[in-house]
Amino acid sequence: MVVSGDTELPGSPIQYFVTRYNDKALAVQNVDNNAAQLYPNPATDYINLELAKAGKEYDAEIYNMAGHKVMTAKVTNKSTLNISSLATGSYFVNLIHDGTTTTLRFIKK
Predict the structure, then answer these.
(1) Which Pfam families does the record associate with it (predicted)?
(2) Is residue 24 helix, strand or coil?
């Protein structure tokens, strides 16, 4: 749904534009909460990842809300990532192993 238009208040015109997306591709859900856990959330300098499959190595990719990849790492079943260099905001972590991707979200304070 897209709505746009003009309205006028005394002394200044106002233009508006409202967009609402119902595209499920824009949404991310933690479907399998048993596959991985991330804490603390929100975080300041470090995030801890606990993965269900012990002894397996995952590729971790961290994306900002604009979709830019800002960090990559190799992680195992219990890993800590230093996120102190990231700007304050919301991020997604994609954990990739054997063609399967698990996505988690965290907030950097």
Answers:
(1) Por_Secre_tail
(2) helix
Residue 92, SS3 per DSSP = strand
Say if residues 37 and 49 touch (Cβ distance below 8 Å). Answer: yes
Find the mean pLDDT for residues 77-82.
Answer: 94
pLDDT band of residue 54 (cuts 50, 70, 90) is: confident
- Token pair 């499959």: residue: 53
Give the domain extent around 83: 36-108
Q: How many domains does the chain have?
A: 1
Euclidean distance between CA atoms 3 and 26, whole angstroms: 20
- Measure the CA–CA gap between 31 and 27, rounded to whole angstroms: 12
Q: Which residues contact 60 (CB under 8 A, 6 or more apart)?
A: 49, 71, 72, 73, 74, 75, 79, 81, 93, 94, 95, 96
